[in-house]
Amino acid sequence: MNDNDVLLQVKNLTVTLPGKSGQKVRLLNRLEFDLKAGQIVCLVGRSGSGKTMTALSLVQEVPSGAVLTGEVRFHGEDLLRLPQEQRNLIRGKRIFTIFQNPMNSFNPSIPMGKQLFSYARSYGQADKSAFYAEMIRILEKLNISEPALRLKQYPFQLSGGMLQRMLIGLAIWTRPEVLIADEPTTALDPGIQKEILQQFRLIRDSCGTAILLITHHFGVVAELADHVLVLQDGTIIEQNDVFSLFDRPEHPYTRALLQASYGEEVVADAAGSEEPDENVSQ
């Protein structure tokens, strides 16, 4: 990959909220990273580190009262400075987002198929029967049983794993250039998790999509990531290709996260690769 492959470029991205006594609370601090075509980037960090806020910021969905500054460039054009109408043409179609709780993405009183087709129609799909036929084929590949029946059902009649796969199916139909997925496998059983992760590879491989996958699980990182961003208290404290990050984590926070996932030997190996500090007393 080279610089010409960059689809989304984030520069100096900062989010602040007004705090007590007029002081500002900084939720994100000068984030900078790129997403390239066909690349899977994992954003990792503990709960509260700012991972979901990063996803919200990229699609300009920050909480009321928050101030969002910096640049989010899509094909070189800063999304933060585009008129709302132009942003709406990009979000959802060219940049697709899957958030943590799939139930929140659907109206519980409308059948699934009707909701999915309503989305597709907003981006130019006019033939309902053709859309349903294509979605059924996609959902079959996602191992959803009786997909025609599922499209007639309501969201509350489907499991969390099915709803998540419905969103992934919609992403496959959409063929986005950038896919942002925030903890897409949270609270799902391991078998469903593995299926969903395989579908992200399918989207990447079939569409050349750049994927930002937000997770706290280093097993997911090891399985999918090309590049890794480590977030602590709203700041990216380390970023590297996945092999270098696992073999030679540079920051103590990264080593602590790896230790929590894989045990003491990771930290011992990383510490053994460092130069000794002559100022430390023996």
UniProtKB/TrEMBL annotation:
Main subcellular localisation: membrane
Keyword Protein transport annotated: no
Gene Ontology terms, MF aspect: ATP binding
Ranges for domain ABC transporter: 8-258
Keyword Cell membrane: yes
Any Pfam family hit: ABC_tran
Gene3D superfamilies xrefs: P-loop containing nucleotide triphosphate hydrolases
Cross-referenced SMART domains: AAA
Alphabetically ordered keywords of this record: ATP-binding, Cell membrane, Membrane, Nucleotide-binding, Transport
Topological category with respect to the lipid bilayer: Peripheral membrane protein
Places the protein is found: Cell membrane
PANTHER family: DIPEPTIDE TRANSPORT ATP-BINDING PROTEIN DPPD, OLIGOPEPTIDE TRANSPORT ATP-BINDING PROTEIN APPD
Family: Belongs to the ABC transporter superfamily.
Name recorded for this polypeptide: ABC transporter ATP-binding protein
Originating organism: Paenibacillus residui
